[in-house]
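re: ur question from yesterday

yeah so i grabbed the chain u mentioned. its 601 aa long if i counted rite. heres the sequnce exactly as i have it in my notes:
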Amino acid sequence: MSLVLPLSAQDISLFEQFNGRYDYIAIGNTLNQAENNIDQSFCSLLESSSANLLLDADNQIVKAYLYWAGSGFGDTEVTLNGIQISSEETYNVTYTDTASGQLNYFSCYTDITNLILSEGNGTYTFSDMDISADLMSNPGYCSNRTNFGGWSIYVIYQNETLPLNQVNLYQGLEIINRNVQEKEIILDNIDVIDNVGAKIGFLAWEGDNNLNYGESLSINNNVISNPPLNLADNAFNGTNTFTNSTTFYNADLDVYDLENNINIGDTSVSIKLTTGGINENGGFSADLIILNNIITVLNSQLPDATIEVNDYTVNCGDNSIELFYTVNNFNSTDVLPANTPIAFYLDGLLVGQSQTTNSLNIGESETNSTIVTIPEDSNQSITIVAAVDDDGSMSGVVTETNEDNNINFIDIELLVIPDITTLPGLTGCNEGFETSTYNLYNALESIEYEEENISFYTSLEDLETASNPILVPSIYNNTTNPETIYARLESPPCYEVYQFQLSVENCPPYVPNGFSPNDDNYNDWFNIQGLYDVFTEHQLKIYNRYGDVIFEGNNDKPWFGKINRGLNNHGQTVPVGTYFYVLHLNDPNYRPMVGWVYVNY
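ran it thru and got these structure tokens back, copy pasting raw so excuse formatting
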């Protein structure tokens, strides 16, 4: 896997990192017809130059970059194998000479991966870099013999036979000269677990073989060399290590062995360049060296845990938050072990912990969720920080290729419990024992809603957790009198809360005109609707046409047409006829009810 980093406008810094079975090769050529410090016989570039790319068939191309550089402010449109190439980024440095004033130098780069994949092995010809206007604008370029141009292609490739490596590509444009005789560059984001086969490569411009005055290249304060191609006192001398060439005029494309210059456990490398010294005439001389990029190849069998918080769920008034997250092992050269700890923080306070479930191979991810609980007095707007490879004390337990990318965060808006709106209540007729039947939707006439978004509850606690809703709101029987009902109207991301009261009242009973006590199970008794179990203290008296009381009843004794008063005929059914009733409801809101009922068979 590769990691692309933000570009630095100038300083040499990490540009891209590859972790896996990777290595690289570089080709290129100069556009100078000779070394420009031997004489001043030329001040122009060659129209083109070529180099050959030869990769083994088992090497899979992953990335390819084209670099070109020269004197002046830069030509950003060039040609490679007849294909026009535009620069993605241009770097510039300046050198101020007493006689010539300010001299400018440039380097461009662009991603040519698709072109290399298409063209494959073979000859690559670079052309159409025109810096003549800049060279002619200031004679100092040629009089100081700093007129140069050249190009290079870096190819990063993958091969399953390679060891697990970390390839770091650093780029920018930095200069040393008589004014700045020493430059130190610190390469970070390095993890060394095995230094066997470790190497470092450079692309530099304007080095001269014949100017070797105090010129050195050191790694971790150790001067390195690669004789006979690159000597300890003349590191930048127009050479190409890949082709063993000494005619890469005013450019250097070199690779050095790092095995004895870097230690297991190192996480950074110090690169130091020097120039300047006493010449053969006793005066002071210095070579102008422009460093364009550095590439390191180190064995690094390490995982790299990163975490992304993808989403979250909050409930109104709830200080528990469900976080949905993904742990990655992308930028890695080894397996990320299962049970790698994960910690979640709010303002530095640990609010939750989790861990990976599975071992993650190189390039794999795992998605999961966890519940974190935040303090009840937290603000409504909070930021949760997620840290993978964190045991809850802000300390890691896994050594990684990059220890600085374990953090992710997400901004969260908590949902406070909404205020309760009180609606007009519903009143129902007593259907017995202080109960009635209600259509709860009738209480919502003053608000707008969709029926699928409303639910009713008998307690506020059930409403807040959406538990135990009333299943059939259109036919609901109260359980107490009065009873408070709570309505929850979904209004994402939260909801609205309403309450209303159910009340029961005794409504006037309905007295039928007659009945037929003939035991046919239909209309067999004097069924006064809304009376029994409603007006529980009522008294009912039935009179015959002579004014005699023939029946007395109450809540437990309805009239089935039989006589229970008088001297005779007790228990007998009354004959067909009209009978007078007096109904004492014994309710202060009602007067006695009187009337006639007809009995027939």
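noticed a couple things. DSSP finds four helices and 40 strands in the chain. also The first strand starts at residue 2 and ends at 4.
anyway ttyl
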